[in-house]
Each structure stands twice: as structure tokens, then as C-alpha cells.
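Incident review: delayed structure delivery

Summary: a single-chain prediction request sat in the queue longer than the usual turnaround. Root cause was a stuck worker, restarted by the on-call engineer. No data loss occurred. The affected request and its eventual output are reproduced below so the record is complete for anyone auditing the incident later.

Affected input:
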Amino acid sequence: MADGTLKVGTITTSSGSGTITLGQSGETISVPSGATTTLTDGISGDLKFNSGFGSVATAYGCRAWVNFNGTGTVAIRGSGNVSSITDNGTGLYVANLTTALTDTNACATSSGSNSTSGSDNRLVCATVTSTTAVDIRTGNASSGAPVDIVVGNVSVFR
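Output delivered after worker restart:
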């Protein structure tokens, strides 16, 4: 094509998977929304981008996240890579991961509230305890005593 555009519907290697190299160093590659695609830099295997931060750097992805109701019957409102939440008693939960992490050296962040409007903050502590689970403990912000939580949020980065 005269404008340098190549459009392909499907590319399949002989084994059904493989690597396709696009572009050269410094070029921009765009992937259509909804595409199931893995992008790496071709040298280290890391996904790298600038995104307006001033330099190209490795991106560290969110490996799992969940927003859940921890009162009554525990229920997930929304999640990514979390299959279920186990209620282990007052203020004690486990987020069960759909796809295991490579190790337990991940960072879990958390927040929560005792209402859907965000008032009456609670203490929320999330710890990656295995490659398939994140322990979540919630407590009263004033006393630290274990309490169930109306809005719990946990994310895991690696």
C-alpha cells in the first residue's frame, strides 16, 4: 500500500501462537480497542510507554482488583481477576484470585468505608498471602476493633 498501512484480520502462526514484530525502535504502534494483544518492547519483554510522563518506562500492571460489600452476605460489586470473596468472620475476608500470581512479592493496596457515600472511613489492610489469595482485615478507624465493611476496595500490583 502506498501509505505504508497494512491491514490484517487474523494472523496465526503454524503452532497457533507466536511473536509478531511491528515497527522499529521509537515508532508508535496502535492496537484497536477490544484487541486481545500482548505488547512488549522486544528487548526486555516489558510493556513500556510514555503516556505523557516525560520518559518511556516499564508499566507495572494491576494484577487484580475488587470492590465488594462486606456486610451480610458478602458480594462483589466489580472485579478483575478476583473469583470470589470469602467471609472469615467480623472484619476478616479473603479475595480469591482467578489467575495465580507468579509469587507473593506483590503490593496490595486497600481502602474502605462504612457507607456507600464514603463517610465513616474504616481501616483496611490487605496482604498478599499466597499466589491465589489476598487477606483483607477491616477495623474501626477510631478503636481499631474488627468490623465488617460496607465498601471494600483492594488492588494488587506486581
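Verification: The two ends are 41 Å apart (CA to CA).
Action items: add queue-age alerting; document worker restart procedure.
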